[in-house]
Design a protein that fits this description.
- 8% of the residues lie in helices and 39% in strands.
- The chain is elongated and about 60 Å long.
- The protein has 2 domains: 85 residues, Chitinase A, domain 3 (Roll), CATH 3.10.50; 47 residues, Thrombin, subunit H, CATH 2.40.10.
- It binds zinc ion.
- The site of zinc ion has 5 residues, from loops.
């Protein structure tokens, strides 16, 4: 069966930096509902369209096709006194971006009385290499299509 709109794709993936340094490897297979439901990157959907189980490929994606370019306005330094207790370097907290919408910031470092935050996705600004292997394709159920995501094994449970 070929990957097309409203099919459920099961795949394994590895993400590395352009240099080849491994960033993440799927331990469990990932499933997603194919067809523009924003469940995975559009470039990945494009590469997999019309393919079948067993297909594998390596995609070299520029930052704008992966997790976006960095937005330096999301880099913040706040006084430690404004900082919720218990949050550590490597943690996250919810703040607001310049236009007032809630946004998750990562705690990058604590330097004396200053806390350095970065609201960019950790992979923003990076060119990435995705190695993808399709391990299964099936028709989505009507309910999955209505919800815009996959149910069952490796999908949503509710
Ligand atoms: Zn659902």
């Amino acid at each position: 069966m070929k990957i097309a709109k409203d099919t459920v794709v099961t795949l394994k993936y590895k993400v590395s930096e352009a240099s080849g340094k491994l960033i993440e490897e799927s331990k469990e297979p990932m499933v997603y509902l194919h067809g523009g439901y924003n469940n995975t990157l559009p470039k990945i959907e494009e590469a997999l369209e019309g393919k079948e189980a067993g297909f594998d490929c390596t995609l070299d994606l520029q930052p704008e096709d992966a997790f976006g370019v960095r937005d330096e306005s999301l880099v913040r330094v706040i006084p430690k006194s404004e900082f919720p207790p218990g949050v550590k370097v490597g943690g996250q907290l919810e703040g607001r971006s310049d236009d007032g919408t809630p946004h998750v910031f990562h705690v990058m470092k604590i330097k004396g009385p200053e806390v350095h935050l970065d609201g960019n996705h950790p992979l923003a600004g990076k060119a990435l290499k995705f190695h993808i292997k399709v391990t299964g394709v099936r028709m989505a159920s009507g309910e999955e299509i209505a919800h815009g995501h996959v149910h069952g094994e490796h999908g949503h449970h509710h």
